[in-house]
Write a structure and sequence with these properties.
Elements lengths: L8 E4 L6 E4 L1 H15 L8 E11 L2 E13 L2 E8 L8 H10 L7 E5 L4 E5 L5 E4 L7 H10 L7 H26 L4
Amino acid sequence: MRTHHLILGKTTDFLTGQSLVDTHDERRRQQLARFLVEEKGYAKNEIQARQQMQLELDKKSGQVFVDFVVHAGDNPLMLILYRPGSIVSRRRTAVAAARIFYDKAIARAVVTNAEDAEIIDTATGRVTGTGLEAIVSRSDAVRVLESQEPLVLSAQRRQKEKQILFAMEVLTQRECDEYTCQNI
């Protein structure tokens, strides 16, 4: 997969201290990581950044990039997708990713452009909050996790979620790589 971003040099990852390629999108991810720690109260070690999901579908494979998986202790609480532009169009992608990232669905899916956010109950697919401030804080995390039974999908439902994610992320990226973005 090619990158279609202006490279601005190097930056230091807020969560790990590692050196990363500095792009406008990476600056937004770093802003979100700082927000989760400094404003929402999560420990750095409760946030897994730059996670990749390998998808296999009809003898085709691809990877989906997940920006953050946030835990409350050992329990996964939120999957966060940062995508520039409209967040409404990314709602279903975030839900699908949160539903199949682990064997049990992650309780909340968050889609954000680092200016706005939608927080989605993964079990129902309903938006439960809007705006960055509506992201669940660490102090409320246990209440959220205790308030709902973990969703376990049937094999058939997992396959459908995988199809949605594959179409929305993998095929879209391939289209960009092969046709739309190759001359940028």
